[in-house]
Amino acid sequence: MNLKKFLVTALTILTTFSGMGINVYAEEGLMNPDEALTDGNFTYELVNGSYTIIGCESGSIINSIPKIRNGYAVTAIGDGAFVGCSGISELEIPDTIRSIGMNAFTGCTSLKKITIPDSVTEISSGAFMRCTALNEVKLPAHLTTIGNYAFAQCTSLESMKLPESLTTINPEAFTDCWSLKNFDASECPSFVFENGVLMNSSKSEIYRGSVELSGDLYIDNNITIIKPGAFSGCAGIESLFIPSSVSTIGADAFSNCASLKKIDLAQGISIIEAGAFMYCKSLETVSVPLTVTDIAEETFAFCTSLEKVIIPEGVKSIGASAFLGCENLKKINVPKSIETVGDYAFGYTTGEEDYEKIEDFSMSVYSGSPALKYAKENGISRTVTDRNIKQIAFIIIAVGVAIAVVVFAVILMMRNRKGAPADVKKARKTAEKQQIEDSYEGIIDSDK
Fold first, then answer.
1. Which of 29, 58, 115, 318 has a CA between 20 and 30 Å from the CA of residue 23?
2. Residues 6 or more apart from 169 whose CB is under 8 A from it?
3. How far apart are CA 385 and CA 373, in angstroms?
4. Are 349 and 325 in contact (CB under 8 A)?
5. Residue 223: partners with Cβ closer than 8 Å, 6 or more residues away
6. Dihedral pair phi/psi, residue 177, rounded to 5°
7. 213 — pLDDT class (breaks 50, 70, 90)
8. pTM value?
9. Which residues pair with residue 272 across a beta bridge?
């Protein structure tokens, strides 16, 4: 009897608590924990016993993230969870959050201030990209990695303090941050900020330059790599001097340097990555170093003032759209070493709907070359530079033949003073002349 009473009592208690649980969910408007959960502001997904925020209501006014929902801790912000959420202006993330996903806050154009808890050790790729109002960021004390494009195009961001634990800044983390003036790296042994430039501790790699840089910029002889996006949007730089110690200029490294007129690229630079000087609208002249073998896609695209480009023998490829939109570039000499020419590499700009040809643009190319093929396929005016060489060779041969004929004629005259009949001589001369003309026409036709 006692055992029976105990079981009844236990069942009653269990039923009561179960009912209470159901009432709690109903009062909060929450769903079964095994399903996606929505509370009016956020959408959650249960992953390994805790919630990940996977979305938010775009119009909701949000200033904090909850620590717990539906009896489960909120531990992660998923990929793209807050993309385009316009109702966030200031956000404090709780210390239950351990990870922030890729593109988590991309395009949150009203977000001005964010505090990231010390529980987060990595800021993923594109996490705060295009947060154009963001001007204050508190990085976590245990942060080790800032991902690709993490703060790219955060055009209102002016300064950032790097924590002691930070060891890795990935490519273009701060590209096109057009207001970024200062880094406080005083507590971070992996990086140093000197003379307006953020570098690694050995001062061999440049990660980001201050937008306050202006006039002449001399890259130090100790530098070997200029990282992608390092000086993008540094509108005050007018002249650039890169020494032979530098082997690589990263993608978009000097893109959107609107005042940059002159670049001095030393021999020794071997890699210039895609878009390195794109949108440098004041750039007038470019001399590609002899040590560069490939001009990557969009390297000098939309350099609208560019008038002269020297591409040396030894360059093997010119990437797609490498000089797209260079409207003042009217002529280009393409060396014989070029093996590939990408789509819209030369002679094009962009119109309202499609690519448009640049008027009066012409190319100097070698016969039988990929550059000649490109010019023909795109209907671009061209001259074949080795035609003159063939013509000179032809003239030399023709003169030699003529001298040989004269010598031969003299010998014949000495052997036979009576000579051949006039009509025979005339026929011989006519045949020789025709042979020379046929040879010349063959040379010219081979260039077309």
1. 58
2. 145, 146, 191, 207, 208, 227
3. 14
4. yes
5. 199, 203, 204, 205, 206, 243, 245, 246
6. -90, 85
7. very high
8. 0.78
9. 249, 295
User: What is the rounded CA–CA span in Å between residue 67 and residue 72?
Assistant: 9
> Exposed (0-12), middle (13-18) or buried (19+): which is 431, by Cβ within 10 Å?
exposed
Q: What phi, psi does 230 have (nearest 5°)?
A: -60, -40
What are the counts of helices (DSSP H) followed by strands (DSSP E) for the chain? 4, 34
- DSSP secondary structure letters along 81-108: TTTT-TTEEEEE--TT--EE-TTTTTT-
For residue 316, how many other CB atoms are within 10 A of its CB?
13
CA distance 64 to 88: 9
Q: Phi and psi at residue 260, in whole multiples of 5°?
A: -70, 115
The DSSP letter of residue 269 is: B
The label of the residue with tokens 């912000």 reads 77
SS3 content of the chain, % helix, strand, coil (to 5): 20, 25, 55
Query: Side chain identity at 436, as an amino acid letter?
Result: I
Q: Report the pLDDT value the prediction gives residue 44, as an integer from 0 to 100.
A: 94
Q: Cβ distance 205 to 169 under 8 Å?
A: no
- pLDDT tens track for 179-202: 999 999 999 999 999 999 999 999
Q: Is 374 left (phi over 0), alpha (psi -120 to 50) or beta?
A: alpha
Model confidence pLDDT, tens digit, residues 362-401: 999 999 999 999 999 999 999 997 754 445 544 555 555 5
Question: Residue 203: left if φ>0, alpha if ψ -120 to 50, beta else—which one?
Answer: left
Q: Which one-letter amino acid corresponds to residue 293?
A: T
Q: Is 309 left (phi over 0), alpha (psi -120 to 50) or beta?
A: beta
Strand, helix or coil at 130? Answer: coil
Q: Are 109 and 131 in contact (CB under 8 A)?
A: yes
The vertex-423 CA angle with 433 and 441, nearest 5°, equals: 15
Do residues 192 and 173 lie in contact, with contact meaning Cβ atoms separated by under 8 Å?
A: no
- For residue 108 the two structure tokens come to 């949150």
CA distance linking residue 53 with residue 85, whole number of Å: 13
Rounded to 10 deg, the angle between the 387-415 and 422-446 helix axes is 160
For residues 236 and 215, give the distance between their C-alpha atoms in angstroms, rounded to a whole number. Answer: 6
Which has the closest alpha carbon to 157: 173, 122, 133?
A: 133
